[in-house]
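Narrative of activities, Objective 1.

The group set out to show that a structural description can be obtained from nothing but a protein's sequence at a throughput compatible with the screening campaign. Below is one input-output pair from the validation batch, recorded exactly as produced.
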Amino acid sequence: MRLQIDREKKEIKQHGSYEFPVLVSYERLSWFDTGEFPWHWHPEIELTLVMEGEIVYQVNDSLYHLKAGEGLFCNTNVLHSGHGERSGDCSYLSVTFHPRLLYGYRSSVVQTKYMDHILKNPSLASIHFVPEVDWQRQVLEQMETIRLLDREHPTSEELQIQIALLQIWKEIYEHVEIDGTGFAENGRDTERIRRIMEYIQEHYAEKITLEELADQIHLCRSESCRLFKRYMKESMFDYLLNYRVERSLELLRHSALDVTQIAGQTGFASPGYYSRIFKRKMGCTPLEYRKNHR
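Output recorded for this entry:
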């Protein structure tokens, strides 16, 4: 499985319908090509409930280690990714919904009084829910209610899901403190990260230098490297290599190109270097991957 994302890392999958903008889905890390879901964002809010295993979930520059029974709130329009812990698998429930399901129409009291200050605050990109905290346990129980509703499909399913989401939002509104410090700076840094990722996505098959990446956000090379490492928990160079490997997977599965040709088309200087980086990330050689995934 591969996420459908555009050149700006926005996920283009439909999350529900216009009439009922909610998607309840059951995911497993091992279903993704690389055993992880890559960086992306979407205008919908996403709630995650871990069912089995563990997941290392990153939202902007915050890193969470989620275990079974724990959950996460991922705000609208924020970058997020996830991978397993020590190569382990993880199954989880994802509830993705557009905020307008809760506030109704633009500039309503629900939007302006109860939602906007949370939705538009870059410093509140995510919330980790654990059952040991009373109000967070209430959120997790509502997410479990949504899971049961999606499985049983009662006649009032949509109404009950909307009520459960409103209950979740009420808990967030009543218990989360809003910190306005660093608001503008957080938003600016997130946009810088997006521009670097967009440039890599467009030019991954070419030779890319750190100077070129730094030029995209008008910072010096050292400051750009520090910013990217702080947010992404990996260097720009490592991110570029991992992205090149990811783009090579489809060619290995669906093309007749040999390893040398694939290495050249995905920006690697030599097939030997490509194979070393591939094995480091995927745990097997490109030919072994092709054999197992044809």
